[in-house]
Fold each of these.
Amino acid sequence: MLNELGSLFPMTQRMTLRASGARLAVLLTNELSRLLRRGSGTVAGGRVGLRLDPELLSHLSAHRAIVAISGTNGKTTTAALMRAAWGSDVGGNVTGANMPAGHVAALAASPAQKFVLEVDEAWLPHVVRSCAPDVVCLLNLSRDQLDRASEVRQLAQRWQGMVSAHPTTHFVANASDPLIVDALAAATSVTWISVPRVWRADALSCPRCTAPLHFNGRWSCSCGLHEPAATWRIGDDGAVTHNGVPVSLTLALPGLFNVVNATFALAAGEVVGVPAAEAAPRLPSVETIQGRYGIRRFGQRPVRLLLAKNPAGVAVLLDDASTVTTEVWVAINAEIADGKDPSWLYDAPFERLAHHTVTCLGDRRLDIATRLDIDGVDARVVGARQDLEQSGPLVTVIANYTAFQEWMRETTPW
Amino acid sequence: MVTIALLYPELLGTYGDGGNARVLAHRATVRGIDASVVSVGVGDHLVDADIYLLGGGEDGPQRFACEALRSSSFAERVNDGATVLAVCAGLQILGTSFCVEGNDAYAGLNIVEAVTTRGATRSVGELRTSVAGVTLVGFENHGGRTTLGDTSPLGVVEHGVGNDGAVDGFRHHNVYATYAHGPVLALNPWLADELLATALGAPLAPHRSVADELYAERCRAVSAR
């Protein structure tokens, strides 16, 4: 805390008195919150600071190099890979609090000149306006928690407005996602990445004219909207090329979707001055993301926790062979943070678990069991975690947001 | 043999609506009845089916789906007695008019007398209704307020909003319409069986499964107000 207060002074010279006071309030609130053990306090302090100075995000981000990362899936992982790719002394909202209160708290507590911000999709226009990031990564847009967030096309329209207001911002974006391509129509500086598609149901009809899209290698619509030529390409086999030249990439994280996340980090790295050849060797240092992917201990049993909050998230996990070679447990809740409506289970390709016996857990275990039963997957419903086998071979736990948090609390690092 | 047509899933499938087709096929198959699910895309010829499913969608795609249906033989098939489940945007399309992209009224298929305007607030949350004394549970997420003319509602609202806070959906010939979106047939196995029995013209043998436990759990979780 004393160090943090000490670092206030150099910044004070560049900030208004009001902003400096607000920053101090952020730090004090968070310290108090930690002392009272009311969680990590990152959001509480940020809220206090924004109340005192609504422009605090803008003041705290001035004079820093900022990479913002947004999209439905892969934000947290891509942000971690970007911090690694960028070298040393890189700050970030590492707790995953990805709205302005979380950004303010992270920025107030860190003097880092290089900062990676993971940003909630709905808040991205606000953050771009406040922080003027050097690069904005747009990973993908798909259905997520529809009972809370605006539907995906409305979100894309808000992004379109953001791009019109900031056309010269540099974007690193998914060329295979029609919603993102349409949103970026007015952007003048874009690095496009071509991404293999395992789930595209949200983008079957044209975001501009609603006519059905044609897929023939690249996608296009009769209205003229089409897939732009990408300088970075990821093949179905996970091979990455940049301007046609193969990029050597080894990751500790599994799955094709993490190759996609890593490619975004490399492409954004190039924009902020880190050549891919320099950044790529740093990426294997990222081994787990807030407990995900790493092996943890449940009683005497090794478990691997995977987070999946929406159909596209489940699709990429079940597409990865390493997921389906172990026993699979699926834990589904429907708290506010998860979205109160688990209808999305029917858009996720759980039929890929056919021939497994899948254990169904969480508040909505009967919903997932019914979903699996319909597709002929053998479902076992278990109400209490203590009734699960706490010894045996590796088990993969696929959980949505609050169920994942519960599993993090119930397990320890291996 | 029962053929289930999923209409324009690329336009009307926002909330797991494809799940309803899977449920119908599954519940027919476990009774020894062959079932096939056919997806009808925009530009495809409307297939001959026993049950047609219309799901939820966003404004632009909803308008596009309405046009595709208008230029097809769908209305004649409904009048000939085809069984239909229409959910959310699908419900609005079958009516007289609906609002998309602001407050502009857009002509529906006029199969039933139902006018949908834009409500002051969005209706988001659990929906529970009584359909001729049987509880229907689901989740609604829509901005529409639907006023029925000379058409019977499907259910009386016990929790949530439905059409207007009092009633939900409508029932017309063999058309069932509700604001309970997404996999409403997974949550309400009795309604899935009723649709199958209507389409087949014969009652079905009882079938117990985990879906019955889910239905009982949702009925407990969402109490009548």
Note: The CA atoms of residues 142 and 211 of chain B lie 25 Å apart.
Amino acid sequence: MPYSNYNDIQSYFTVAFDVVSMAIQRRRFVTAVGSGAVAGLAGCTALGRDDAGDANGPEISGETLTLTTTTSTYHTGLLDELNAPFQDRYGVTVDTVAQGTGAALETARNGDSDVVMVHARSLEDEFIEGGYGVNRRDLMFNDFVVVGATDDPASIAGSGETTSAFEGIAESGSTFVSRGDNSGTHTKELEVWEATGVADEFGEWYTEAGQGMGEVLVQADQQGAYTLADRGTYLSMQSELDLEILVEGPIEDGPEMLMNPYGIVAVNPAVHDTVNYDLAMAYIGYVTSLEAEKIIRNYTSEGEQLFFPEAISEEPNFEQYVPEEWERNE
Amino acid sequence: MLLEPTLWPALVAEFPFEWHYVRSIIYVSLYVSLVAVTLSTLFSLPVALLVGFKEFPGKGLVTSLINTGMGFPSVVVGLVVLFGVSNQGPLGELNLVFTREAMIMSQFVLATPVVTGVSLAAVSSVEQNVRDAAFAMGGTRADVALVTIKEARYGIATAVLAGFGRAISEVGSVLIVGGNIVGPDGHSKTRTLTTAIQLEARQGQFETAMILGAVLVVLVLVVNAVVVRLGSGNGGRY
């Protein structure tokens, strides 16, 4: 799916939206007219996930939580496993929309989701600094790996450093498939290129797929190309691919740069009063609980653990709540 | 990898999905597309009759607008509908984003120009003397319209089928406004056959994607057969 286009067009439309929101005073009128049209069109269902229990405080049961998340948490199957006990306990539904980090945060910015689970700290920080997100928690981590064809034309196998591996790919002009979709993995990839200094001189060997991790792995597989992948998605697809890991991430003692931490953030109800904040916080409470920790720890694919929980710690971890390098200014 | 011979035994040997999962995505596909096409037919037929038989200034423009709409890219329609139903959009308070209703809206927008355009061609080809005869026999305007529809029924059936084909085979807009959601109990909320195929393909599961593709083709065939049957069932005896 062309997420990059989606984002481009979306940011283009954001401008149009500012104009629309200037007319927000007219919104009730427009909505009244619009609701008539939709009632005719759609049979007027699904009116409000939060209109239940207005009278006597929030009744969570029966409500729907919209979670936007990355393709890696969803396609590995972890979220199905994780969400089932939560839904049972609270009698709620979790609608999981797998989009990639950039798109997931953008959807939340528009108030169309209640909680986001993503893996690009710089984008999460931007989201929080913009006032859109509150109560961020560290959730879990795994790592990125550099994968490529077994014959390894750029001879990067065993590179101790990610940057030297990337430099090797660039120097040999071997095909590299980039996600190109403003996802967490894409963000990490660009960070690495930035560190090598190659970022400004991409040649024809550098291709942008603009698609999810699975599609990019398939593309790289078919072209005998290199790519950066999160270990979870790679492991879950390993049997379909002829690609192998050429540079390991920190889980297998690779460079720390390839760390892949996941965070979870609730959408700020002060910005979007329609979001289901109570349920979002219940969900954050659940996924950072001992029970969820156990589910995450025990979740495996082909016998290998995919994610390492880090929400629960005896040591205080204040950095998780605020943007990185944030300092109290008194 | 795509054309591995193992693919074909897989088609007959084992069905790799839970049946209730497949049934629910078939249901969502059919529900969304059929409702959308029904609504767009109800909208399109009067428009086609009006444009076909009334002379008015700007008629040429309306016709070319309809024809342009037939080729409208579905992702663009998806984006426009998304911005309409998003929380910040004009319909935001209805919470329609990531629902089947939003998918119906986008498919309505996609199917309507097709149904209108093909119906317009069909009713325009009904000869004037048929209409004159109906009028001369004392028919009201509604009677004349009915006779016209009856005369053009094959063309209109084709229009409805073309609209249905456009709706059910479309992946761009339903993915954007629907979100491809399945509950952990394995029941589809907004996942259709097309978005399910895309999901399998993006994970490199080409075999299972092909199986779902076969299901989709069979489904379209069945709907076509039913519509053609209905179209010819009461044909020619008024």
Note: Chain A touches chain B through 55 residues (CB under 8 Å).
Amino acid sequence: MNSSKETFLQVIDKHQGIITSLCKIYYPCQDDQRDAEQDIILQLWKSFDSFRGESEISTWIYKVSLNTILAKVRREQKRPQNVIINSSHENRIIAPAACDDDLQLLNQVIQSLKELDKAIVILYLEGYKSKETGELLGLSQSNITTRMSRIKKELKSKFSQYSHELR
Amino acid sequence: MNLDELKPAWQHYKLQNSLEGLNHQAVLRVIDQADQEVHTRKLFRLVANVTMFLILLICCQGG
């Protein structure tokens, strides 16, 4: 095995939590998760040589992974059959992944969002500012700020009572 | 509801998922397949370019 493959495997090993978490959030079914994981690994490998270390490696992984997943989701939404299959599984991922109240609430909050909004909230939870989030997702800072305030408003109305019940 | 309160839960979720263990063979299979496709595409482009060059050479020999 050559050294760049070894380095790549180490990078993937170290940041596997990001990749798996994103796949689980967007794809409830295990087979779909595996497919998405393979797509992400493929895209990461293709751009691995051009990664110059100008940003954190985790930032690069978020960028490639989220854009790969969002493109995949958009492609699949054009095929109506898949939407039906996915939506039938949607509520099933919440339960097994959640082992305490906070995790359960996190899952419910994220699953209540639209695909792009999920990515914005995930990057917010990871601590990225709206400018960085915009750069990662190819959107303007003002677009992210507007979306984020709308998301917060929506979540407030949806979960203010429910978060009480969970605690 | 304050989203900031979910930040520790997101870190916990990632940590949980990082413990699942990665199948190196599966990753290598994806990488190797990608490399194979790149080589095939390069070879195809080379053959196409050589063919085009030969056609031009044959067609432009008059004069």
Note: Residues 82-98 of chain A have pLDDT under 50 and may be disordered.
